[in-house]
Amino acid sequence: MDELLKVAELSMEKFNPATDSAENFEKLPDADYSCLLEEVTSRKNDKGTEWISLKFSIMQGDYVDKVLFANYYFTEKTMLMNINKLRKLTYDFGYGIPVESFRTLDTLAEALNNMAGNQATVTQTTNKNGFSNYKITPLQ
After folding, report:
1. Residues 111, 98 contacting (CB under 8 angstroms)
2. Cβ(90)–Cβ(96) under 8 Å?
3. How many CB atoms lie within 10 A of CB 35?
4. Which of 28, 61, 78, 116 has the highest CB neighbour count under 10 A?
């Protein structure tokens, strides 16, 4: 418990909850990462944008235990493309996904969560607007 107190004291010194973000996600460099798919969730922000998020933990190299989130947004413009991408991804992982799984994003995330526990190479690239893109290659 002494360690907990030391870290809390450091927080009191350096962290202002009124102005600082509690998020501790650093932007990782563009590279290929050996990852484990931990979970798939459905998400929705305050503006109503919905997406499916695949959470990967890095298993090797300088960034072990850091996480990557590959997100598939379901806007009017991107819905068909991302349904196709997710169907392709499940196929590449060796899973099928029944059409009924697409009733809601929650049921879709639940079906996609069957892939959790599988390994993949996740290639991160950053586009000219600063957004990260991910190519996921399952390891067989």
Report:
1. yes
2. yes
3. 26
4. 28
Kindly report, residue by residue over 60-76, the tens digit of the pLDDT.
999 998 999 999 999 99
pLDDT digits (tens, 9 = 90+) for 10-29: 667 766 676 655 555 668 99
Closest to 86 measured CA to CA, from 49, 113, 125, 66:
113
Q: What is the DSSP code string of 75-132? A: -TTTHHHHHHHHHHHHHHHT----GGGGSSHHHHHHHHGGGTT-EEEEEEEE-TTS-E
Place of tokens 């996921």: 136
- The answer to whether 113 touches 93, Cβ cutoff 8 Å, is no
Closest C-alpha among 100, 101, 48, 97 to residue 76 = 48
Neighbours of 53 (CB within 10 A): 16
In this prediction, residues 48-56 reach a mean pLDDT of 95
Which of left, alpha, beta for 18 (phi over 0: left; psi -120 to 50: alpha)?
alpha
Question: What's the pTM?
Answer: 0.80
Measured from the Cβ of residue 138, the count of other Cβ atoms closer than 10 Å reads: 17
